[in-house]
TrEMBL record:
GO biological process: maturation of SSU-rRNA
Residue ranges of domain Helicase C-terminal in the record: 307-470
Keyword entries, A-Z: ATP-binding, Helicase, Hydrolase, Nucleotide-binding, RNA-binding
Substrates-to-products reaction catalysed: ATP + H2O = ADP + phosphate + H(+)
Chain ranges of the Helicase ATP-binding domain: 128-296
Domain of life: Eukaryota
Coiled coil regions in record: none
Name this protein carries in UniProt: RNA helicase
Claim: Nucleotide-binding is one of the keywords in the record: yes
GO terms, molecular function: ATP binding; hydrolase activity; RNA binding; RNA helicase activity
Family of the protein in this entry: Belongs to the DEAD box helicase family. DDX52/ROK1 subfamily.
Enzyme Commission code: 3.6.4.13
Length: 493
């Protein structure tokens, strides 16, 4: 006869997963020797109960840890001002690049080590795992925060080895200098893939077509690409990256970009749009094109990093500006390299001439009227440090990565706040401190209220009087974007 204890035990055991063992015991004929084994069964079941208890404990512990990890991750994301929206995305890598060995191939890991990068920047923490998932992406992150590496590394990983037949990735940049820079940055990490810029490929159509078949990544401006795309087969394209994704609209290239996107529409493409400033209407245009895009925003739209010390100086008129430059030189505040932004090519030439006359600073200027080779040489000299001060137009405001620029001077007040964000973003890059001084005259007062908003979003102390100023009307802002303020000639001061 079974004791109550045994029945209870067997009853309990039959509900357990490993039923078979217990059922065998119930069905087997009973014997003296078996009854002697009863304590063993009890012990066995007791151990099982203990094991279940401890499994439950482990599960509870794991759930607790998972919750803690998510909480910790969310706290860190909040601290780093990272916002992500979208479904089913890989978790960010919030520690160091070594952790990426589970994601990136060994070659890329080796190149990363050589580059000296140790810790991913916030945009790299989140964008790299998402691009590896081949998801459509809209990413907004501050100037100098490493967006190029954020899209270049995972794209190189996704493309793996060289394949003949035509490029699998198209990278678009709005200016030649930026395309050159992207080319260098991709090549920094690349060993296997063949990357070309459109201007390196022969303009003669047949030769272009032939060269097309042997490359993996093509870097171009949308305009140049539109001139040549008809002679090649686009069916190999899998990825499209648009750097400075809002600049095309600023340049009035909306129709061209739409045309480009229409051409690519029938293909299965993963899109990546990157910028430090992506106005909502532009974002909406891109969104229409994408299926379930993931959006990453670091900081905010038009966000200037807090490590850039932004200063405003009232100089009343054009004469005041040149005096202020002399003061800054005399006060020893012009530690090179210095970038100075003006609103036109003629003003760039004129200011260079004025500063040359002082004979204290090695100065040059750069603008779109110069031959591309001359521009390349000037950029090179500024990189090397043979030019200390470079006076430029807004052609150099976006994307250009001059190392360690100490000071940006907005000699002429920028035509829009988007331009302001990009100009001052030429300093304070790659984790360094930077300084930006913006001169304003009576002609610029109507734009100060908008600047106050940018300063506020960037976490700066903003003098209260700036918020008392009237907000410039939309029409006025638009007018200023299109037609720069008429200013007195620099040479007449
Ligand atoms: N993880 C990293 N660690 C150290 N330096 C980095 C890292 N990632 C990028 N950099 C460096 O930071 C600098 C700025 O990078 P990058 O030009 O990609 O910035 P960006 O976000 O594209 O800026 P912009 O909006 O002005 O184009 C470069 O000199 C780059 O080499």
């Amino acid at each position: 006869m079974l004791s109550i204890f045994q029945v209870l035990k067997n009853g309990i055991c039959t509900q357990k997963k490993k039923k078979v063992v217990v059922e065998q015991k119930v069905e087997a004929p009973k014997s003296e020797s078996e009854s002697e084994e009863q304590p063993k069964v009890v012990e066995h079941d007791f151990r099982r109960a203990r094991r279940k208890e401890s499994l439950d404990q482990i599960e509870q512990e794991m759930t607790k840890r998972r919750t803690q990890e998510i909480q910790h991750r969310n706290t860190l994301l909040k601290k780093l001002k990272i916002k992500i929206s979208g479904d089913n995305i890989n978790a960010p890598i919030l520690t160091n690049f070594a952790k990426m060995k589970n994601y990136l191939n060994q070659d890329l890991m080796n190149q990363l080590t050589k580059s000296g990068y140790q810790k991913p920047t916030p945009i790299q923490m989140v964008a790299i795992p998402i691009i590896l998932q081949k998801k459509n992406l809209i990413a907004i992150a501050p100037t100098g925060s490493g967006k190029t590496c954020a899209f270049a590394l995972p794209t190189l990983h996704n493309l793996e080895n060289h394949k003949e037949g035509g490029p699998r990735c198209l990278v678009f940049a709005p200016a030649q200098e930026l395309a050159d820079q992207l080319y260098k940055e991709f090549n920094k990490f690349n060993k296997e893939l063949k990357i070309k810029q459109i201007q390196e490929m022969n303009r003669e159509k047949q030769a272009f077509k032939q060269a097309w078949n042997h490359i993996d990544i093509l870097i171009s401006s949308p305009l140049k690409f539109l001139k040549l795309h008809k002679v090649v087969d686009l069916s190999t394209v899998e990825y499209v990256i648009m750097d400075e994704a809002d600049k095309y609209f600023e340049l009035g290239l909306l129709a061209q970009v739409k045309q480009l996107l229409r051409i690519l529409e029938s293909l299965q493409i993963t899109y990546m749009f990157f910028s430090a400033t992506l106005p909502e209407p532009v974002e909406d245009i891109y969104r229409e094109l994408l299926i379930d895009p993931i959006k990453i925003m670091i900081g905010g739209r038009n966000h200037v990093l807090s490590r850039i010390d932004q200063q405003l100086r009232y100089v009343s008129n054009e004469y005041g500006k040149i005096q202020e430059i002399k003061n800054l030189i005399n006060e020893g505040q012009m530690t090179p390299p210095v970038l100075v932004f003006v609103q036109s090519k003629t003003r760039a030439e004129a200011l260079m001439y004025e500063i040359e006359q002082l004979k204290v600073i090695r100065v040059n200027c750069i603008h779109g009227d110069m031959e591309s080779k001359t521009r390349q040489e000037i950029v090179e000299q500024f990189h090397k440090g043979t030019i200390w001060m470079l006076i430029c137009t807004d052609m150099m405001a976006r994307g250009i990565d001059f190392k360690d620029v100490q000071l940006v001077i907005n000699y002429d007040f920028p035509q829009s706040m988007i331009t302001y964000v990009h100009r001052v973003g030429r300093t304070g890059r790659a984790g360094k401190q930077g300084k930006a001084i913006t001169l304003f005259t009576d002609d610029d007062k109507s734009m100060l209220r908008s600047l106050a908003n940018v300063l506020k979003v960037s976490g700066c102390q903003v003098p209260e009087w700036l918020f008392q100023l009237p907000i410039a009307k939309k029409e006025l802002k638009k007018k200023r974007e299109r037609f720069p303020v008429k200013r007195e000639n620099i040479e007449d001061q």
